Amino acid sequence: MTLDSDEAPGAVRPGQVAPPRRARHRRVPVALLLPAALGLAFLVLPLAGLLVRAPWSTLPQRLTEPGVLTALRLSLQTATLATLLCLALGVPLAWLLARVEFPGRRLVRALVTVPLVLPPVVGGIALLLVFGRRGLLGMWLDRAFGITLPFTTTGVVIAEAFVAMPFLIIAVEGALRGADTRFEEAAATLGARRWTTFTHVTLPLVAPGIAAGAVLCWARALGEFGATITFAGNFPGRTQTMPLAVYLALETDLDSAIVLSLILLTVSVAILAALRDKWITSP
Amino acid sequence: MTPVAGPSALEAHLVVDRGTFRLDLELRIAAGEVVALLGPNGAGKTTALRALAGLEALTAGHVTLAGQDLDRPGDRLWTPTERRPIGVVFQDYLLFPHLSALDNVAFGPRRHGTDRRRAREQAAGWLDRVGLAEHAARKPRQLSGGQAQRVALARALAVHPALLLLDEPLAALDARTRLDTRAELHRHLAEHPGATLLVTHDPLDALVLADRLVIIENGRLVQEGDAATITAQPRTDYVARLVGLNLYRGRADGHTVVVGDGFALTTADRLDGDAFVAFPPSAVALHPSRPDGSPRNTWPATIAGIQRHGDNLRVQLDGAITVAADITPAAAAHLRITPGQSVWAAVKAAETHAYPAAG
User: Fold this and answer.
1) Which of A196, B133, B325, B355 lies at a CB distance of 3.0 to 4.6 Å from A192, suitable for a disulfide?
2) Average pLDDT in the B231-254 region?
3) pLDDT in tens, A176-188
């Protein structure tokens, strides 16, 4: 045998010693600390403003107003349904983008992210043009099945899913690309076909990424406004979600708008905080 | 370690082109036989294994297992991995992290149509055979390296593969665990009725575990045979280093073999024509000045490097021929050897082994 690599000349340099770990954490440069503190203040102050301006004395009474709970329930329901829809369609699409080489894959990947950059109102108009009663698909749905989507609760779900799905796809595709494909090879050597491998190996491996994507997706759907009001309108009990209710209240009663905002804030922060530590940090 | 005679379970001619690299290897393994595929890094060992497993397609040639063509690009025949009767133990095992040891082993039988209850029974049986019955409920991250290796072996064997493929099955283990695991692996491989191909770069794994060694370099076969033949008569520098011998090629004329630039080695064997001369590093003695006495080869040399080798020191020598010599620490202290120092090297003719290079 020839020279062992660990004994090769120059491989060991006793003079070089790694600095103690603590030293690297000691000084935080002001040039970083200052903008970081400003950034935090910028994000937190408006929320603090909500709390300061909230009509605390009349709060219990306002909370029990019938419209509030209806809007909240509708928001949670539609956001959850939209997330389920995104999971059903988005996970396979993410898999396709991550695992299958096909011509135009880059174009498809760009198209998938379009709803991210599109103003939601424009998204709503686009949905109307396709799913509206005279839209490309809407007309056919109406004639063949008598199904009308715009200005219905289903319409809300579709609008929210349209806007939120890219968040899920991006998170899941990232998780799939980061996952070790050799586990799938190992499954194949044990006799697993592609579908079984997907359900029994790939999905469990990227479950944290899917969960993170679903949480982002759900949060985006919960806050959706522009596409919803354009495509589904603003009918209390049917399509009026919390953001829409806040917007409507703002025109008549600022205090009501603040209360609705607080509720939406509390519910979403509570749910995100419960999930965040578990998933979002480690997709 | 008795080679099993019989019809080949595996008959393959693996040709895989990848850029400038080309693997071109014929491989035959009988049922019950364990063949070790050895070679330096980048020789194409893993490519060969992946081609047999169907994880990589052949460019040409064929893979025939138990009389059935699995891959024959000439006839556009291709069987995907999941339909091949194979089992693979991967280098880092690739146990599914979300499944318990038991469910990892049951995964294969389940995919082969066994119902859940019986698959788990079979898996429990396999875990018992590899001595891990009490670890069945553990997740892979809760297993030690040696335990994970045994689960991976049980998982591969649980599908009763006609061809078992092992990719560096002991490389990820520390030295102590490797010793125990190697002995146990030997037992399981001996019991395996199908053909076994073991890919490794560790000569000890190959010598202990395999009935026959196939050595490749740069995608080509360089030597093939049982352990005794290969350790006694290496045919390339790589193989010589593998078995720990100094090896030279030259022209023999009676009891001398001229190697390199007119340097003649006196050998005990009598030979004519193209020849190899091999001798172990322990046969080389070092002297401060020219030794005299019994018929031996002596030549001046320069010490190029020194390193520990077991209890001894291995000294690399430059000179008319480059040689590795093993000397005791006492001898080293006596000679006060340092790199760059000039010494005399000596090898007794009786400790050399010369054999024909042709054929």
Assistant:
1) A196
2) 88
3) 999 999 999 999 9
Residues of A in contact with B324 (CB under 8 A): 1-2
Q: Please give the model's pTM, rounded to 2 decimal places.
A: 0.79
Q: Which domains does chain B have, with CATH numbers?
A: 8-240 (3.40.50.300), 244-356 (2.40.50.100)
Cβ-based interface (< 8 Å): residues of B facing A:
53-55, 80-84, 86-88, 90, 94, 96-99, 107-108, 111-112, 155-156, 159, 241, 244, 305, 307-309, 314, 316, 324
pLDDT digits (tens, 9 = 90+) for B119-176: 999 999 999 999 999 999 999 999 999 999 999 999 999 999 999 999 999 988 888 8
- At B22-39, the pLDDT tens digits run 999 999 999 999 999 999
* ipTM exceeds 0.85, yes or no: no
Q: Residue A153 and residue A235: Cα distance in Å, rounded? A: 9
Residue A72: CB partners within 8 Å, gap ≥ 6? A242, A263, A264, A267
With H, G, I as helix, E, B as strand and everything else as coil, classify residue A155: helix
- CATH architecture of the domain A63-280 equals Orthogonal Bundle (1.10)
Pairing state of beta strands B163-167 and B195-200? Answer: parallel
Per-residue DSSP letters for B299-324? EEEEEEEEEEETTEEEEEEEESS-EE
pLDDT band at B5 (very low <50, low <70, confident <90, very high): very low
Q: What kind and span of H or E run contains B253?
A: strand B246-259
